[in-house]
Amino acid sequence: MTPGYVTLHERGELAQRIDAALAMLEACGLCPRMCRVNRLENELGFCQTGRLSKVAGYNLHFGEEAPLVGDKGSGTIFFSMCNLGCVFCQNYNISHEAEGAQEVTKDQLAWIMLDLQRSGAVNINFVTPTHVVPQILEALPLAAEGGLRVPLVYNTGAYDRVKTLRLLNGVFDIYMPDAKFAKPKHAGRYCEARDYPGRARAAIKEMHRQAGDLTMDEDGIAVKGLLVRHLVMPEGLAGTKEWMDFLGREISKNTYVNVMDQYRPCGQASEFPELNRGITPSEFEEALKAAKEAGITRLDERGPVFVRRLWQTLKT
Q: Nearest 5°: phi and psi at 266?
């Protein structure tokens, strides 16, 4: 099956999307921060990214969910900086400090995609893409002309504008948003974005409207749809029950949900006493219970053994 981005390019529609996305950089309104800086002239807003995207690294990644990895790995591109900026980010050196950041042109970004495909990647997985949507779009025609044919993954913190996501309709095959905070006070405290819960819910609705529930091929590899990640946090700070109820009620009980157990204090987490520990087995089991009670039928439950072992290690 021909990927949507190839079809859009052949019809000339991708060029229109690129023009619209680049125009948003002039007074940047790509994300809910609405910084209004002129990134075309390298003015910097919250994401500290100008005209060109910055890539911290790329590789075949095997730590993603099984439907994204298969036997060959997900072709992961890590963009530097972020439009959300969680204080506890496990990629803090990349998302806050731009460690290893290299500015790349559209030709270079297209080459990276093709190199990952040549290496066997089953998809191209764009990590933290929200602030570089135009740069990704303008690289895609070159990649498509070079023979790129694997699905594209939008791996996001979900602090996205629906207006921007609509430019991606038919371009991205798989949406993989985080569902981070259910309450404005927590989003405000840990990422200075009190509007995160509402923005994320609207974004996830739009992603599901475009791509539907996650579908896989005969080998169990994801080809299209929505995969939601939810990181369980200490003291219930992520609002697991609220998120699971939202997904089951307003998205789909067939949503593929990965309830993640790997929270650990990173970045500036030590400055917040309530964040300065891992989660307990009972906190994680309570999160799984909330998902099941919300009627979620496709629940990734790989975490309990890991979290119990981690907790035992920390206690000793």
A: -135, 170
